[in-house]
Amino acid sequence: MRVNLLSGVVATVFCVLATTLVNGSAGAIFAVVLTIAITTLLLSYLIILPSAWALRRTQPDVVRPFRVPGGRVGLGICTALVFGWVAFGSFVAVFPGMLERLFGIGYDFEDAWGVSRTTFEVFTLGTLAVVVGVAVLGYLWRRPQDR
C-alpha cells in the first residue's frame, strides 16, 4: 500500500509542476508529460536489455520460461538490435527536433509542442534527474542491507 500512496504523491507533484512550470495549453502540457512518461519507460530498457543478456551468460542453468532462437548468439544479436533502437528512441524523445536539425530539415519546436524548447528540456531533463537521483539514493540505501 505504501507504493501506491508514494506513486500517487509523485504523480500529483509532477502534475502540479507541469501545470505550474509549463506555459501552454492543456494539450501541450499533456504531450510533454506523456513524452516524459514514455522516455522513462524507454530508458529503463537500456538497463533491462543488457541485464537479461548478462544473466543468460552468467547463469545459463537457471530455468526461464522463454528462449530466443539461436541461443546466446541469437540473444546477443536481438539485445544489440533492440538496445540500439531503444537508445535511438530515447534520444529522439529527450531531444525532439535534433535529427531534423542534423539533416537540415525545418522544425518549429513551439509549433510542434506548444511550449518552448527550453521549457521542454528543463522539465524533461529535470524529471530524469529526479528519477536517476531517487534510483541512486535507493541503491545506496539498500546496498549495506544486501550484503
Structure class: mainly alpha
Oligomer: single chain
Low-confidence stretches: none
Largest sheet: none
Tally of extended strands?
Answer: 0
How much of the sequence lies in strands comes to under 5%
Average of the residue pLDDT scores: 84
- Listing every helix as H and every strand as E from the N terminus to the C terminus, the arrangement reads HHHHHH
How many individual helices? 6
Helix content: over 70%
Number of domains: 1
- The coarse overall form would be flat
Instruction: Give the distance, in angstroms, between the N- and C-terminal Cα atoms.
Output: 27 Å
Backbone CA Rg: 19 Å
Describe the structure.
The chain crosses the membrane at residues 28-53, 73-99, 119-141. This is Amino acid permease. Keywords: Membrane, Transmembrane, Transmembrane helix. The structure is a single chain. This protein is an all-alpha fold and 147 residues long. The chain has one domain (2-146). Helix content is 77%, strand content 0%. It contains six helices and no strands. Helix 2 packs antiparallel against helix 3 (71-94). The longest helix is centred in the N-terminal third of the chain and has 33 residues, at 26-58. The protein is flat and about 55 Å long. It starts with a helix and ends in a 5-residue tail after the last helix. The relative contact order is 0.12.
